TrEMBL record, chain B:
InterPro entries: AAA+_ATPase (IPR003593), ABC_AA/LPS_Transport (IPR051120), ABC_transporter-like_ATP-bd (IPR003439), P-loop_NTPase (IPR027417). Residues 11-250 form the ABC transporter domain. Gene3D superfamilies: P-loop containing nucleotide triphosphate hydrolases. It holds the Pfam family ABC_tran. The keyword Nucleotide-binding applies. GO terms for molecular function: ATP binding; ATP hydrolysis activity. It comes from the Bacteria. This is Urea transport system ATP-binding protein.
Length: 369, 252
């Protein structure tokens, strides 16, 4: 429905009336199209044996970001809600786990070095509960969803339109990043939180732990992908698309569109929070520069380029853009924002439905011939 | 006598004024509908017919006056509660859900439990599936049930939305210009569809097309500049000099 379905290719190949010239080509392509997702999954599973430790770490970060991108497809593609503030939810998940890992590294009764440098002598009260792994895991999952749900409800229950929602969500990202920077003594300020050595007792430098965490990330990508497809196929998915297409019609059929949008938004924030926590784990850092206005816009660009109606497209877009970003910005750090801006404009004008939409068009054209 | 008439009274629009910053789209307008009745409201463009529908379904709130449905004032209720009480409206521009299939459009309307968390399931429940099949048959879209609603022809979209409104089970149905953009044959089918609803539903139809109004054979209420102008059967309205002058004044 939302992805270039490999079945379409195989159906084209099997169609009895297909034109003789193109039919053999389509027939030859059919098994390839069908095998492609499985091939990609196989490669992803085998990545720890195929890639260097450095490249595996990059891939793991990008996979984490793909979890966030899946949530954006849900709300933006299927719910029509453009969020320019998903960095906030990414950050909440990331900081929650980072605080836990900082605490875990501390000797009994000490406080993190940056707090000492800022003249603090004790932990802030709200750091304390994060010493519990259970609390931290719960916070990673619940905190972003809760904040997002409240935010979304506060805006939409006043029937504010989509453009205003985007602007207000951007203001939220700005406020969040500003707050993090200004509260240096408890957030690590501009530098954020970094230098973690273990998670739940597992040393983060051990190769087996690194590989395991990569597979955990991959498994969450796959689970989120499958779960979201199921959700879209349910009546909830129907309601969400209905709220996007005709909010008034839905309202005057006796439904309340706001809770549907709020639930979808909270779910996408939950995915963003998981993404942020996993990213922090793989990157070894979370900082305001990763959660503010510009990163929030970049997240939208990944999905716009991959295709905002397509979960597979969003994963692909996120991986491709981040790989490109990594290679370009390591050589020319200043250039990346321009390249991304240009890419975004090109894609939005030439392929409004992104790579996934372009692929679907090609397949349909091949089938029509 | 009084008891008898209030028992059959379904809707009373009581002295309603809607003020758009000084401009009164409805100006002390009143009308009543009996249970099972079909009523046509006509009036020149801008007379306030759509605003009347908007006010009944809670999209627009009256500045003055009240809307009584089954004797209770509904003019301050949230929209979904007005629908839940049994009022549903077809919009002037077809208000269908274009990316859903025809059957899903009706299935959504036919759902009785509209709380969002009850949507965490698959397909249309069996009881409601029967309603969906009936409605599809009634509006002649059975063969199109799996089509994306956005791909329907204009007339089919109108029927689909009428089907959705019927599927909600609402006792009071408001149809705002249901034949707009339809040819004579389609218009006739629409009149038949409204007839087929029988006495179980009360229908308020807004339309311009006098031949359609004649086919409906219902009492006609005429509005002008947000006010009540006249009421009677089609023949009486046709012969009403005041009505004629209002229409002539606007078409000249
Ligand atoms: N939201 C609004 N704000 C201001 N004026 C409005 C609004 N909606 C309708 N009107 C005006 O109210 C009058 C009645 O409109 P409407 O009820 O749509 O008329 P009808 O359906 O009879 O053609 C028109 O003059 C229209 O311009
Ligand atoms: Mg109108």
């Amino acid at each position: 429905m939302s992805d270039p379905d490999p079945m379409i290719l195989s159906a084209a190949g099997a169609a009895p009336g297909a034109a003789p010239l193109t039919a053999p080509l389509a027939a030859r392509l059919a098994p390839v199209g069908k095998a492609l997702p499985w091939l990609a999954l196989g490669l992803a599973v085998a990545a720890p044996w195929l890639l260097s430790a450095y490249d595996l770490n990059l891939l793991a970060r990008f996979m984490a970001m793909a979890i966030l991108a899946l949530g954006i497809v849900l709300i933006w593609g299927h719910g029509g809600i453009l969020s320019l503030g998903h960095g906030v939810f990414f950050g909440l998940g990331g900081y929650a786990l980072a605080i836990h890992m900082k605490l875990a590294d501390l000797p009994q009764g000490e406080i993190p070095d940056f707090m000492q440098w800022s003249g603090r002598t004790a932990l802030p009260w709200w750091w304390e509960p994060f010493s519990s792994p259970m609390f931290t895991l719960l916070a990673v999952l619940v905190l972003p969803a809760l904040v997002a749900g409240l935010f979304c409800w506060a805006v939409f229950h006043r029937r504010v339109g989509g453009t205003y929602f985007a602007l207000i969500s951007q203001a939220l990202a700005l406020a969040f990043a500003t707050l993090l920077v200004s509260q240096q003594d408890v957030t690590g300020g501009f530098n954020g939180l970094t230098q973690f050595s273990s998670l739940f007792g597992f040393g983060l430098t051990r190769p087996s732990v690194v590989q395991g965490l990569y597979w955990v990330t991959l498994a969450i990508v796959v689970a989120a992908y499958l779960g979201l497809r199921l959700l879209l196929a349910s009546r909830f998915g129907m309601l969400l698309r209905a709220a996007r297409d005709g909010e008034n019609r839905l309202r005057f059929l006796g439904y309340s569109p706001t809770p549907v949008k709020v639930a979808a938004f909270a779910l996408s924030a939950l995915l963003a929070g998981m993404a942020g926590a996993l990213f922090t784990l793989h990157a070894g850092v979370i900082s305001p520069a990763l959660v503010g206005v510009i990163p929030s816009i970049e997240m939208i660009v990944w999905v716009a380029i991959g295709g905002r109606y397509s979960f597979a497209g969003a994963i692909l877009g996120t991986l491709l853009i981040n790989i490109a970003r990594d290679s370009i910005s390591s050589a020319f750090p200043e250039l990346w924002l321009y390249v991304m801006g240009a890419l975004f404009i090109l894609v939005v004008t030439l392929m409004p439905d992104g790579l996934a939409g372009a692929a679907r068009n090609l397949i349909e054209r091949a089938r029509a011939r | 006598m009084k008891d008898e008439s209030t028992r059959d009274l379904l809707l009373a629009v009581d002295g309603v004024t809607v003020d758009y910053g000084g401009f009164k789209a409805l100006d002390g307008f009143s009308m009543t509908l009996q249970r099972g009745e079909t009523r046509v409201v006509i009036g020149p463009n801008g007379a306030g017919k759509s605003t009347l529908c908007d006010t009944i379904i809670g999209r627009v709130r009256p500045t003055e006056g009240a809307i009584l449905f089954r004797g209770e004032d509904i003019s301050a209720l949230p929209e979904q509660l007005i629908v839940a009480r049994g009022i549903c409206r077809k919009f002037q521009a077809p208000g269908i859900l274009p990316s859903l299939t025809v059957a899903d459009n009706i299935g959504l309307a036919a759902r009785r439990d509209r709380r969002w968390w009850r949507s965490l399931g698959f397909g249309i429940p069996a009881g409601e599936q029967a309603i969906v099949n009936d409605i599809l048959e009634q509006v002649g879209l059975t063969a199109r049930r799996a089509t994306q609603a956005g791909l329907l022809a204009h007339g089919e979209k109108q029927w689909l939305e009428i089907g959705m409104v019927i599927a909600t089970g609402a006792e009071l149905i408001l149809l705002d210009e249901p034949t707009a953009g339809m040819g004579p044959a389609e218009t006739r089918r629409t009149a038949e569809l409204i007839h087929s609803l029988g006495d179980s539903r009360t229908v308020l139809v807004i339309d311009h097309d006098m031949s359609f109004v004649e086919q409906l054979g219902a009492t006609v209420t005429v509005m002008h500049q947000g006010r009540f102008l006249a009421q009677g059967d089609v023949q009486a309205i046709r012969n009403n000099a005041e009505v004629a002058s209002v229409y002539l004044g606007h078409t000249a």
